[in-house]
Fold:
Amino acid sequence: MTSPTDDRSPKLPRGWLRAAVVSTIAFAFVGAAAGFIAFLSQLRGAEIVPDRKADGIVVLTGGSSRVSDAMELLAAGYGRRLLISGVHPTSTASDISRTLPENQSFMTCCVDLDRTALSTRGNAAEARRWAQARRFKSLIVVTSNYHMPRALVEFSHAMPETILIPFAVVGDKWREEPWWASASTLRLLLSEYVKYIAAELRVRLEDFGIDLSPEVSEQPPGMQPKRPATAQAN
Structure:
């Protein structure tokens, strides 16, 4: 009979669990840092004029000079129509045109407003409906440079057969100082990186038929959250 003290089962070395935890955290940190560097490599430091025209132009609200840059592209003939996605429900075309006096004529002939989108995913869904209704096969996507990677993930997933041409808007603050010299810019980039990873993960899961978070604009009206008075789409 085996005595209680006669336990010859192998024992793990002391500190094994701690070493495993530390190694896991280290690998996770290195992976996150490498991913962040890869994310930064996608960001353009200067605005580059598209090398081709498209059927339409879509601008995502939420950042300075996005709409004005999109209007300039429209005026230059880079697209036949412009969709401003994520406009607050109380805003009107006249409100927007007052901020863009040099392009007021285009507001009445060639600009459509989307007041439904509450997120980048919603922007992509509304842009898809807008493009399909007009049989557009190519779109210039206008948004801030730090937001462009996530926007392209959402737009590519929503309309895989549409040609997407990015136009990344570079803000004045980005031009004036490097991102690592500004705490607020660094926080913005880290936040956007996390959202980008989340979008990539959600899109990959959806490819396998797993939808963990249905788009708000596709939910029943009673289930949709109300947009706060100061909310923006991105």
